[in-house]
Amino acid sequence: xxxxxxxxxxxxxxxxxxxxxxxxxxxxxxxxxxxxxxxxxxxxxxxxxxxxxxxxxxxxxxxxxxxxxxxxxxxxxxxxxxxxxxxxxxxxxxxxxxxxxxxxxxxxxxxxxxxxxxxxxxxxxxxxxxxxxxxxxxxxxxxxxxxxxxxxxxxxxxxxxxxx
Length: 164
Fold this sequence. Notes:
Domain YbaK/aminoacyl-tRNA synthetase-associated: 27-150
GO molecular function: aminoacyl-tRNA deacylase activity
Protein name: YbaK/prolyl-tRNA synthetase associated domain-containing protein
Structural class: alpha/beta
Pfam family, one: tRNA_edit
Number of strands: 8
InterPro entries: PROXY, YbaK/aa-tRNA-synt-asso_dom_sf, YbaK/aa-tRNA-synth-assoc-dom
Radius of gyration: 15 Å
CATH superfamily: YbaK/aminoacyl-tRNA synthetase-associated domain
Number of domains: 1
């Protein structure tokens, strides 16, 4: 039942900050394209979270990297921004320990002291609202973009892969 714990933490945090958001219950959807259709949102409004493990230069840091769902991450940019030399996606076990969520259900907030939250600045300039799975694949939150930035306060790092 950790999904309800995460959902409750999220809604309490958003309510404490008077954030503008709404909750949407829906059928299970793990892929960004599927859930955007169900939500009635643009794919780029999705706030996709990747749990990464950065290593090298004496750094060992887990990072929750948030980016628009229609973009891909450049893990080397994440590694260099944190001060490491390489980054990889965390294992399912690490993801579960650090987020208490399954892949695809990770909200763009870190509730774990060892999980550093970063976001690509592109997330904040294209849409007035962001959408994300709220700790479960059956529930989404659609949140005002400015409120997300204020409440989550992620470190801004440009790490979207440039398409050639």
